[in-house]
Amino acid sequence: ALKKMHIIQTHILNFNYITPNTFYKPQTTRAFEYLGLSQSSPKGLLHDANMGEDVIIGILDSGVWPESPSFSDKGLGPIPKRWKGTCVDGAKFDSKKHCNKKLIGARYYMDSLFKNNRTDSGIADTEYMSAREVFAHGSHVASTAAGAFVPDVSDNGLGVGTARGGAPKARIAMYKVCWQTQDGSCASADILKAMDDAIADGVDVISISLGSAIPISREIDISNVFSYGAFHAVSKGITVLMAGGNFGPDAYSVQNIAPWIITVAATSLDRWYPKPLTLGNNVTLLARTPSVDPELQAELIYVDSSKEMTSEAAGKIVLGFTTAENGESATDFLNKQMEVQAAGVILAGRRSDKMIVSEGLINLNIDYQQGTTILNYIKSTNKPTITVSPSIALTGPLVATKVAEFSGRGPNSVSPYVLKPDIAAPGVSIVAACTPEKINYENGYTAMSGTSMAAPAVAGVVALLKAVHPDWSPAMLKSAIITTASSTDPYGEPIYSEGLSRKLADPFDFGGGLVNPEKAANPGLVYDADVQDYIRFLCASSYDEMSITKISKQTVKCPSPRPSMLDLNLPSITIPFLKEDVTLTRTVTNVGPVNSVYKLIVQPPMGVKISVTPQTLVFNSGVKKLSYQVTVSTTHKANSIYFFGSLTWTDGTHNVVIPLSIRTQMVKYFDQ
C-alpha cells in the first residue's frame, strides 16, 4: 500500500486539514540573532562562511512561491558549477522566469498519486501542477533555511523585523512532494525519488519537515523512506536534517529517529507580547493573546464552562476554565460567549503558547493560578471590573526559553540506545515567507510553529558549517552541533520543558541542547562515523542481513557474535537497560589545535557510577584520533526512571560535552 506522509507543522493534522482556530503567538523574525548569528557582527561564522553562498540546500516539502523577496538572488554570484539539477516547468511556473541564482532547482512529484487511478489523483482543484505551492509551508521552510534578507516584514503587524534564513546566501532546490488532497498526500515513493534526485543533483544539505504517524517504523523497514533516503544521502556525504515531530510532550513521541539523521526539537524565542489585565483592585496580570486589540474596560463575570450559556455575559468579559487536551471545549466556550455577545473571554487553562483565534471576540489566555486570582477577586466584590491594556513587548532574559509542548520527546521508541532528538532550535512563531494567497497574509509573510520550523533553522546552520568545513562528514557536522549545544538560553538562564507541568529540559527534550552556531564552528573534538559504522549498528540491532543489504546497497554479512549497540560512535551515551556493569568505547577526532591536551569532567546521572579510561587525551601532529572506554554501573536496587548527566572533554578553551541518559532495569521491560 502507498504510504502517506504528513507535513510536521502544528497547524496541520494531515496535509489538507488545517486545525481550525489554532494559533501560536508571533514573536519576531529574530530567531538567528537569538542564536548569535547577527548580520551586524564584523566577524564570526556568518562572515567566515560568506553566509553560505556556495552551499546548496535541498528542501522536500509542498513547493515554493518563487516571487517571494526571500528568494531574490540580488548580490549572489554564479550558481556553483557542480550543480546538476534543473527547474521543471509547470502550471504558473516558468523555469526561465521563476528560477534564479537563489532558487536554482524546482521539481515536483505526483506519479504516485495517479498510480491507482490515472484519471483522478485526488489533488484539490486549487493546487498548481508544478513546483509552485498553494499551501503556506514549503516557502516558509525554505526561507527559514536560506531566505534572503527582507526588511520590514511581520505577521499582520506583530513581530516586525527583517526576515532571513540561517544561511542567507545559500542556494535552494525545492522538491515538491506534498499536495493538497483529501487525505493528505506526501507519497512515500515520491519522497524517495525526490531524495535520490537531490543526491544526484548535487545538494550539500537536505532539510525535510515531514513525518508519519506513530508508531514509528524501524530504520530498515522499506516503508521508512526517510531512513532509506537519508542513508543513501549520508553515504554520499550529504547531511540530512529532519523535524522531530509534533506529537509531544508525551515520552517516545519523537520521529525520524535513524542515527544518521539530525533530528530537531523546537523551542521558543526570547520575545513575548503579553497583554496587561488590571483588575478593579489594581492587581495586574499578564495574559497571552493571539490578537492586537485596543484598550478595553468592562465588567467581569465568571461563567462555569460546563454549564449552559447565560445572557448575563452580554457586554462583559467572561472568565472561564478549561481542562480539555484538544481545545474543543475552549472553542465551544468561546462560541457560546459570542452568541450572547460577550465583550471578551479570559480562558484559564494549562500554560501553553497554543491559543484559540476567535474573530470578533477578544480572547485572553492565562494559567490556572492567574485564573484563581481573578476568580477570587470576582467573588470579593459586587461589581468586578477589568481593564485590558494594549500588548507590551518583553524581550531578553525576562522571557524564558522553553522546549515547545508539541515538540516530539524521547526516548527513541525504535532504537532506545540512540538519543533522540539530537538538537533544538527556535520553532515557535517563526516569521518567514508564505504564499500571498493565504487569507489575511497577502503580504507574503506569516508566523508558523512546529518542528517544521526548527529543522530548517538548523539546516541553515549546517550549511554555514559546511561552507567553512567542506571536508567534514555528516557525522562530524552532527557531532559539532551536539557537543557545543547549550543547556541554557543565550543569557545563561535555564531552558524549560513545557508539558503537563513545567520542568527543566533534559536530553529527551532537546538532545544536546539549544544549537550554538558560533561554538559549533570550532568544536575542538568531533565524534565521527561512516556508513560501515551504521551497518555495524544495524547488525547490532539484530536486523536481518537482507534488509541491511537493501538499505546499504551493498552485500552485508553481520559478524558473529553481533556487535554491541552501545559502540556506535555517537556524541551521546544512552543506556536503557542497565543492570550489570557495561563498558563501551568512543573515539574522538581532533579538529582543533594540533597540539592539544584534553582533561575529563564527568557529571554522573543520579545513582550511576561512570569510570573513564584514560582520563587525559593528548593530541599532536602524529595523533589525530584517540579512543576512550566508559564503564557504567548502577547503585539502584530497583528499576529506575532515566537519570541524566554529561561527559566533557576540555582543553580549557573547548568544552566537548555529550549527554548521558541512563536507566536501571533490574527486571527488563517492567515498570512498577
UniProtKB/TrEMBL annotation:
One of its GO terms (biological process) is proteolysis. It holds the Pfam family fn3_6. Signal peptide: none annotated. Residues 52-487 form the Peptidase S8/S53 domain. Residues 567-662 form the Subtilisin-like protease fibronectin type-III domain. InterPro entries: Peptidase_S8/S53_dom, Peptidase_S8/S53_dom_sf, Peptidase_S8_His-AS, Peptidase_S8_Ser-AS, Peptidase_S8_subtilisin-rel, Peptidases_S8_3, SBT, Subtilisin-like_FN3. Keywords: Glycoprotein, Hydrolase, Protease, Serine protease, Signal. PROSITE patterns: SUBTILASE (PS51892), SUBTILASE_HIS (PS00137), SUBTILASE_SER (PS00138). One of its GO terms (molecular function) is serine-type endopeptidase activity. The active site is at residues 61, 137, 452. It comes from the Eukaryota. One of its GO terms (cellular component) is extracellular region. Belongs to the peptidase S8 family. PANTHER family: PROPROTEIN CONVERTASE SUBTILISIN/KEXIN. This is BnaAnng21170D protein. It comes from Brassica napus.
